[in-house]
Amino acid sequence: MFAPGAARKDGKYYLYYPHMDKMFIWRIGVAIGDSPAGPFKDIGHPIKDITGIDPKIFIDDDGQAYIYNNTAQVARLKPNMVELAERPRPIDYAPPSVKKDKTQRFLEASYMHKYNGKYYYSYTNYKNNEHQGFYAIGDSPYGPFEWKGAFAPCPEGAQFHHSLVEFKGQWYCFYHINTSEELRNKLGLDWNGFRRIACFDRLYYDDDGTIKVLSYTKE
């Protein structure tokens, strides 16, 4: 299982997880449970007509669910949350100049959230040495979107793979760092090897709805 996604609807919890099939193609499986901690029961087959890793499930205010994946595509889900209601369509997230830029274009980690009635599509470009989180704003879960640029610097020792979540009126960005030897020594950790540590920081918006560049803290 690579980086999974999760959703809650009508009292059920859904775990969407990527795995490689016998033909070396990434598929997205689904398991269902009554608790966010599980246990989960797999539905027995991957979702048809969609491939890739990093599934993100977005449920709009009207209850309609959408799935995004690491090929920068989106599709509506049926009410059962385990079948596509349409074929995936590409996301128009930026102008051609950005899509051709090796350090700014989409590479992975599709994410969708909604703020003040606008739809925010964000993603990662791990080849950028300064900023890895980028985003665009639109009026629909499908876009088209107006590209806004970077909102997150490179996290320490890791590539940026994020979740943007509102909790009690405050927005947060969840991400991870990697434990290089230097970082292990700095934090006083006593294990060897590389490990990812989940982190979060507060996320802020400007008055025009753009996201302020994320500031990583040590607290």
How is the secondary structure organized here?
Blueprint: E1 5-9, E2 12-20, E3 26-33, E4 40-42, E5 56-59, E6 65-68, E7 73-76, E8 89-90, H1 96-99, E9 108-115, E10 118-124, E11 131-138, E12 145-153, E13 163-167, E14 170-178, H2 181-187, E15 196-203
Antiparallel strand pairs: 1-2, 2-3, 3-4, 5-6, 6-7, 7-8, 9-10, 10-11, 11-12, 13-14, 14-15
CATH level 4 superfamily of the largest domain: Glycosyl hydrolase domain, family 43
What general form does the structure show? globular
Write the H/E string, N to C. Answer: EEEEEEEEHEEEEEEHE
Q: Count of helices?
A: 2
Round the mean pLDDT to the nearest integer and report it: 93
Enumerate the strands of the largest sheet in spatial order, edge to edge or round the barrel: 1-2-3-4
CATH topology title of the largest domain: Tachylectin-2, Chain A
Strand content bin: 35-45%
Query: How many strand segments?
Result: 15
The termini sit apart by 30 Å
Low-confidence stretches: none
Structural class: mainly beta
Biggest β-sheet description: 4 strands, antiparallel
CATH class of the largest domain reads Mainly Beta
What's the architecture of the largest domain in CATH terms? 5 Propeller
The Rg value, from CA coordinates, equals 18 Å
* Oligomerization state: single chain
Give the proportion of residues in helices.
Answer: under 10%
What would the keywords be for this entry?
219 residues, mainly beta, four-stranded antiparallel sheet, globular, Tachylectin-2, Chain A, single chain, 15 strands, 2 helices, 5% helix
